[in-house]
Design goal:
The chain has one helix and two strands. The chain is low in regular secondary structure and 56 residues long. Pfam families: YjbQ.
């Protein structure tokens, strides 16, 4: 399947709310990595944090 079609169906980014240092997900929500290829190579994960810091 061509990459542009996969990105249209599955998306290319994810936004996760974090509260008190933990993912703020619902009871039935989860995070899954899908690699629809026969021979997957090494991948890099890019994380960008945005928000306010607060004292502990």
């Amino acid at each position: 399947m061509p990459a542009h079609l996969k990105s249209s169906l599955l998306g290319v980014s994810l936004t996760l709310p974090i509260t008190n240092g933990h993912f703020n997900l619902g009871i039935w929500q989860g995070i899954y990595l899908c690699e629809p290829r026969d021979s997957a190579g090494e991948r890099k994960l890019v994380v960008t944090l945005q928000g306010e810091s607060r004292p502990l």
